[in-house]
Design goal:
Layout (H helix, E strand, L loop, with lengths): L1 H16 L6 E9 L2 E9 H8 L11 H6 L1 H9 L2 E5 L2 E7 L3 E5 L2 E11 L8 E6 L10 E8 L2 E8 L4 E5 L5 H18 L1 H11 L4 E4 L4 E4 L3 H27 L7 H20 L7 H23 L6 H30 L3 H27 L8
Helix pairs in contact: 1-10, 1-11, 5-10, 6-8, 7-9, 7-10, 8-9, 8-11
Length: 378
């Protein structure tokens, strides 16, 4: 029993304890015959941490401050990206940078031109990526590789700093599996989505006793499993609808509104575990707020870049990846929660205490996102 509690506590606590959301850069490389070009979007907040762009220390990075450090930014970035074409090293030329906005702030956009000693179109590219590796081991580079009429994606970072790509092998299946991987990875590092899901899963092995106004344990595993199945199915259906609508450009919502509402959904779901207003029909809560979470998923998919010639394939692959990530969480959580459902540790420590902790974290997120502030390191 003690081992089961420790395992469940780790599964529950790690998203909060390790909830430092990794910074992302967005690297696009386009191969046309023997020409290799691209652009690299790097967050100004990350560059400021590495290079100190905010010269006057007023907490705001101006265009003048960025422009004055263009040479430093270009040198810092190019030293941390190496490309080989058919095993031959390429040199990188960085053009005049621009500024663009992503959903999480302003980014420096560096135009790239790669000079490679190849007379014809390369068959293989090898990338070595070490941007911010010494400052933030969780940093990721999201690669969008366009070659031979197909788009391939990959995640570059400390866990896979060097990767090779066979350009003649970018098939539809490879594109699909790339987006599946992206969807799975996103749900595992999307701590707001994880905390929302956990808030809905915590009551699955309990039943609200109206007479005593306390939580009691469910009698059988089947009852808990059916409850989880309803919640996950409703959440999946809802976010699949809005993810598709947003990714296809049918519906667009302001990112601040979406992210603030996602944080609010976590607060509501967590506090409902402490003082239930909705019980027995949590699938309705999952569906309602799942519609908003779908717009959050869509913003990530937009940053990855959707291939026009494989739009449906990318959408389906990303969504499948999200579902696989959710299923993995459920498979870890549900059996352990069922074993511990009779204990005060679960009913009071995890159900009540854990829900209050989730609500507190999400409450800070809500304030940060609503007022464009940053107080938490994750």
């Amino acid at each position: 029993m003690r081992r089961a509690f420790i395992a469940l506590w780790l599964a529950f606590a790690l998203p909060t304890a390790w909830a430092h959301k990794p910074s992302d850069s967005y690297l696009t490389i386009v191969v046309k015959a023997a020409s290799i070009t691209g652009h690299w979007d790097i967050a100004l907040r990350d560059l400021d941490f590495a290079l100190g762009l905010d010269a006057d220390g007023n907490g705001e990075i101006t265009w003048g401050e960025v422009r004055a450090r263009h040479a430093d930014i270009a040198a810092y970035a190019s030293e941390r990206l190496q490309l080989k074409a058919d095993d031959k090293a390429c040199t990188i030329e960085v053009g005049e940078q621009q500024i663009d906005n992503h959903t999480d702030g302003a980014y420096s956009v560096l135009p790239l031109a790669f000079k490679c000693d190849t007379a014809s179109a390369p068959m293989r590219l090898t990338l070595s990526y070490t941007l911010f590796a010494d400052l933030d081991p969780q940093h990721r580079g999201l690669l969008n590789l366009v070659a031979r009429g197909a788009v391939s994606t990959a995640v570059l970072g400390s866990q896979a700093s060097t990767q090779s790509f066979e350009l003649g092998d970018i098939s539809r299946w490879r594109q699909f599996t790339d987006y599946v991987n992206e969807g799975t990875w996103h749900i595992w590092i999307g701590f707001d989505h994880i905390l929302f899901l956990l808030s809905l899963l915590l009551p699955s092995v309990l039943v609200w006793q109206t007479a005593t106004r306390t939580w009691g344990a469910v009698q059988g595993f089947r009852e808990a499993f059916v409850d989880v199945l309803k919640v996950v199915t409703a959440f999946t259906l809802a976010h699949s609808i809005t993810l598709s609508l947003a990714a296809l450009g049918v519906v667009e919502l302001p990112s601040r509104l979406v992210e603030s509402t996602i944080a609010a959904s976590i607060v509501v779901a967590a506090l409902n575990n402490v003082h239930p207003l909705v019980f027995g029909r949590l699938w309705m809560v999952a569906f309602g707020f799942g519609l908003v979470h779908g717009f959050g998923f869509a913003s990530v998919l937009a940053d990855l870049g959707l291939p026009r010639d494989a739009l449906v394939l990318a959408l389906v692959g990303f969504n499948v990846g999200v579902e696989l990530g959710q299923i993995a969480i459920v498979l870890v959580f549900l059996p352990l929660a069922f074993v511990l459902r009779h204990t005060r540790v679960y009913r009071i420590g995890l159900m009540i205490g854990g829900s209050l902790l989730i609500a507190a974290v999400a409450g800070v997120w809500l304030a940060e996102r609503a007022f464009a502030q940053k107080w938490l390191p994750f």
